[in-house]
Amino acid sequence: MSNNPIYATVQNNGDARATGANGVGAATHGSTPPSGELVRPNHPLVVVRNGQRDELAPGILLDEQGTLELQAYLQSRSATLMFDLRHLPDWQPNICLAVLTFIARLTIPYTVCSADGTGIDLFSVVVELILAPENIERCKAAINSATYAAALLHADAVPLAAERIAARLHEIGIRGYTVAALAKSINQSVASLRHAQVASDEPPLLVINILPDAPVGDGIVVPDGWELSPAGIRQAGTDAAERSIPAAVVISERLHNVRTGAEHLRIAWSRGQGWRSRVVPRATIATSRTITAFAEFGLPITSNNAPTAVQFLADFETYNFDELRLTEVTEQLGWHGGNTPDRFLLGNQTLCGREASTGHGDGQSLQFLGADEGDDQLVEGYHCAGSFADWREAVAQAGTLPAVALICYVSLTVPMLRLLESPNFVFSLAGATSRGKTSTLRVAASIWGRPDEKSPAAAIATWDSTRVYIERAMAVRCDTPFILDDTKLAKHPQDVTQAIYDAAAGRGKGRGSLTGTRKTLTWHTVLMMSGETPATAFTEAGGTRSRVLELWGSPFGNINVETARLINTINAGILRNFGHAGPAFIQFLLTNRDQWAELRQQYAMLRDGYQARAGDNSVALRMADHFAAIHLTAILAHQASIVPWPYRDAVAELWTVLTADSHEADRAAVALRYVMSWAFSHREEFSKHLHTNGTPPHAGWAGRWGSLDDFVGFMPHKLDELLRQGNFDAEATRRMWRDREWLRLTEGKNFYRARMLPRGDVVSLVAIKQAAITEVMGGDAEADVEDCGITPSLPTRPARG
Questions:
Q1: Which residues, 6 or more positions from 248, have their beta carbon under 8 angstroms from its beta carbon?
Q2: Looking at 21-25, 306-310, 696-700, which range is the least confident one?
Q3: What does the mean pLDDT of the chain come to?
């Protein structure tokens, strides 16, 4: 070969041309390449004719008419032809074979080039395309191309061709391919070519003519070289029973993930009990080792016939690639369409501004495709039952209660978060048991789907779940509320803490993989929860607390016979009628997409108003985003006639309650109040520093607190033990106290060095200034502590013998 790279020697004197959208050019004049749109394909077939370089979509050669047009163009006059095949391994297998066949059967002189140079021997150039295996799939494609080129050009010298390919593989360091195995592959291609030549004048054999009930389109054909029948599959001319597949198998659908770009195939098979199907990644059916996994689901594939199944399915896809139904799928519910979403997937409905779609091929519908069956179960609860009118009637009276109205607005707010670029938050109902909290969450869930937490497929769940499950579920149920009932069912309090943090953060835990890092899960959601303990009692992260909106007590007010009857009526109504309001609200938003920019402006104005109302309450100030999103959603919900009660500003009605505990977000102050409440009730465990011979308690001194001291000093281990009991991070708490100058420190130290007794040893204390205690707890600190009723206790340690 000569060292003559095509792009360095050929001047582009013509347009870059490609076929139209259907891959086939229209009839053209002899001097013009068959082309439609003037677009540049990602991996073009480059043809240089008399010095003019044309880039053609290689798919033109899949069509007989396109092939004839290209032949006419190339042979119209005497021409010097060169084909650049460096992208051959990047094309689909059927396109790759079509290009090689076309070039090999040309009757005029030509040269071909790879990345390294040019030559007149097509087989040699294709062999040179086998490169070092940085990309395994591309390397395999290049090897397959070389064996096919050998079958086209050297059918009478297969052993020599196999040795040439093996030498190339050895040259670049690829092991595992023997000459015998390569020769076998070439011979199989030779047989397929001969069979295709014999059958070229025969019409294609349609699958539906053999298997009328097969789940395939009318144009799906049996690939050449194969026999398909109700009894199974075998290669034509082969009688080896152990290599045949005793079941009819087809590919019924191609699936493309719009988020990840991954491709899947739906494989269907029949063995006398109707057709079964399974969606699998393409890689699963690409090797004999992985395809045997189908045996678990009833497909009779063993290690003996696995290679036959792999080859048949590869040929089946190649022959029917353009005819197979293509479906767009995603592993996540909610908005799709990038920065300007135009579709919303909810269960099996695709909401796209016109109407809900569950069909295929309309360019709008999406299908959910989970990573496993558990993901599928997560979305099964998002469907409708009964009627929208009956749901409205069931919840109408509940709307007269501000807390129930508010939680409906919050549930509808979730899909607004992405549109408004508003942060996630947590909404908590806390209070004594049997006060209507679960029923209120059911109302919120009924907006989107089944509101029965006891059902395995529902839009509401309980806290009896692991962190990994909650994280995965929030990612799958993106842009819808994530509803968990009853925190006392959580296995560990830290599980609730972590879920609150994850929901507010909107992203999962970073995890590694065998080769790098896995993609981090993200979501937009509102965690809606209930429990007897306030959500703010579970988390010590002040920044997260500003994202928790909490209502204490019964959402239905005083619980009496009349209230109980109302709750029962609502429960009965929403368990029969659900899943209508949420989709209707999404359709309203999509129908008014042209007003989204104006909605963002209204949101910003409402946020400014709530920030002004918050005044110097820093936490309420940060809650302004959530209040504004809920307020705007409530307005839209009434404009769209989603909820049946008159408009009410539920945020304004509940403002005092929602912001009453916002001071609790100051974790440094909360921790100080906590430890001082213990200190006030355990004064006898502190040294007064006036005793000449003080006797320490059995568990040892808790610290020093004398009447002449202007501080309360804790022994570090005692303070840390107390803080951990109160669910505080001890080290972080002491750091915050130091930063606020609440601690007396010995110069150059992080502690205060003092004597516990007049003649005792010098010890290190965490010395809290009296001024800080007064600042946090008020002028009469001890009285304030007694009023708050907080009396934490520490387990006492046994005295040392």
A1: 211, 214, 228, 229, 230, 231, 232, 233, 269, 270, 271
A2: 21-25
A3: 81
Which residue type does 548 have?
V
Q: Which helix (H) or strand (E) holds 527?
A: strand 526-531
CA distance 550 to 559: 20
Which residue has 């294609």 as its token pair? 204
Edge-first strand order for the sheet with 343-346 is 334-336, 343-346, 349-351, 356-357
The answer on pLDDT for 597 being more than 70 is yes
Residues 6+ apart with CB under 8 A from 633: 409, 412, 413, 416
How far does Cα 129 stand from its chain's mean position?
A: 37
Q: Which amino acid is at 501?
A: Y
For residue 9, pLDDT beyond 70? no
Chain centre to alpha carbon of residue 165? 42
Task: Express each pLDDT in 472-507 by its tens digit.
Answer: 999 999 999 999 998 888 888 778 888 888 898 888
Compute the distance between CA of residue 475 and CA of residue 478 in angstroms, rounded to an integer: 5
Q: How far apart are the first and last CA of the chain?
A: 93
Q: Over 80: is that where the pLDDT of 783 sits? A: no
Q: How deeply is 372 buried, as exposed, middle or buried, from its count of CB atoms within 10 A (0-12, 13-18, 19+)? A: exposed
Lookup: tokens for 377: 């179960």
pLDDT of 158 reads 87
- The DSSP secondary-structure symbol of 117 reads -
Report the C-alpha gap between 451 and 439 in whole angstroms. 9
- Mean pLDDT across the stretch 367-393? 89
What pLDDT score does 726 carry?
A: 79
- List Cβ neighbours of 760 (8 Å cut-off, separation of 6 or more): none
Residue for token digits 């507010």? 504
How long a stretch of residues is the chain?
801
Give the closest residue to 137 by CA, choosing from 305, 309, 263, 265. Answer: 263
> What string of DSSP letters covers 634-699?
HHHHHHTT-SSSPP--HHHHTHHHHHTTGGGG-HHHHHHHHHHHHHHHTGGGEE-S--TTPPPPTT
Eight-state DSSP code of residue 35: -
Residue-by-residue DSSP string for 179-228 = HHHHHHHHHHHHHHHHHHHHTTTSPP-BHHHH-TT-SS-TT-BPPTTEEE
- Report pLDDT digits (tens) over 135-182: 777 888 888 889 988 888 888 888 898 999 999 888 888 877 888 888
Q: What stretches of 300-432 show up as alpha helix (H) in DSSP? A: 306-320, 373-380, 388-395, 402-420
- Structure confidence at residue 1 (pLDDT): 33
| pTM score of the predicted model | 0.62
